[in-house]
Amino acid sequence: MGKFGVRITGARMRDCKAIAEIYEDAGFESIWVPDHLALPVEMPTDYPYRSDGTLPFGTDVALYDPWLWLSYLAAATERVKLATGVFILPLRHPLPTARSLVTLDRLSGGRAVLGIGVGWLDAEFDWVGQAFKDRGRRTDATIRALRALWTEDVTEVHDEFFDFGPTRFRPKPVHRSIPIEIGGKSAAALRRTAELGDGWIEVGSRTVDVFGERVRDLHGRRAELGRTGPFEVTVSDRSLLKAATGFKELFDAGATRIVVDPPRSPAGAIEVDQLAEWAKAFARDNILPLADA
């Protein structure tokens, strides 16, 4: 059965609790927050996930720590999943990342979802002393380290990037591990998703046909690897949402979750007094019909 997530980007901090409650009451399955450490004053003009290279946000956008943000939302909700879309994984060491995630997961009763990407903005890597060219391999190593920390009694990691342990990492996640859903469109990203991911966050497909081909390819690769566990396919790319004739076409092509944007004011803010009516109408037209199907 398909489900819907929703972004909270653009919310005023004082309104986040009310917005999260509105989303949960409407029946959204998940709430998604973005991640960047910092943005340069002058941004590059070759953003890789839009055909024209333009950014979907300005350099003056407000940036918040995703784990503090989601932990606050956890206290305001009971059922909705709490996800990053996407967390730039190779910018961070796996130990603090694992600790932040398991804290959120425990606070929320097992509702954390780690949506990740390798990053595209080389300045962020330069500023924290990471090699931009190594980000793919570092991402693979970080995923393996996170899984080990969350599932093994005693963990040791000694590889190209990390050297720590033995350690007993406690507590463990509520449901043994935390889902890791991987965003990307490159051959390396799709390989990583098939081998290591619990889901794919679509980006850059442009058309529903290309999206469907990629979904089928991922399922085929997972079958070859003997990976039979749950696997989410999330569509949140605005370009693909515009290209589709409707949500049903995307679900039929293999999406299991679609993440949408709420209406915003001309200044880009989410207005709480308008949000409840929008959420109610969206649930009536889209969420409830899926539940009844």
Task: Report on the architecture of this protein.
By secondary structure, this protein is of the alpha/beta class. It folds into two domains: 1-33 and 262-293, no CATH class; 34-242, TIM Barrel. Helix content is 41%, strand content 16%. It has ten helices and eleven strands. The strands form two sheets. An eight-stranded parallel β-barrel has the order 1-2-3-5-8-9-10-11, surrounded by four helices. Strands 6-7 form a two-stranded antiparallel ribbon. Helix 3 links the parallel strand 4 and strand 5 (112-117). Helix 3 crosses helix 5 (135-151) and helix 5 packs parallel to helix 6 (187-196). It is globular, with a radius of gyration of 19 Å. The N and C termini lie close together (8 Å). The model has no long low-confidence stretch (mean pLDDT 95). One of its GO terms (biological process) is alkanesulfonate catabolic process.
**Beta-strand residue fraction:** 15-25%
What general form does the structure show?
globular
Within the CATH hierarchy, at the fold level, what is the topology of the largest domain?
A: TIM Barrel
The number of E-state strands comes to 11
Keywords:
293 residues; alpha/beta; TIM Barrel; 8-stranded parallel beta barrel; two-stranded antiparallel ribbon; globular
Secondary structure elements and their pairing?
Blueprint: E1 3-7, H1 16-26, E2 30-33, H2 66-76, E3 81-84, E4 87-88, H3 94-108, E5 112-117, H4 122-127, H5 135-151, E6 155-158, E7 163-167, E8 180-183, H6 187-196, E9 199-202, H7 208-224, E10 232-235, H8 238-243, H9 247-252, E11 257-260, H10 272-292
Parallel strand pairs: 1-2, 1-11, 2-3, 3-5, 4-5, 5-8, 8-9, 9-10, 10-11
Antiparallel strand pairs: 6-7
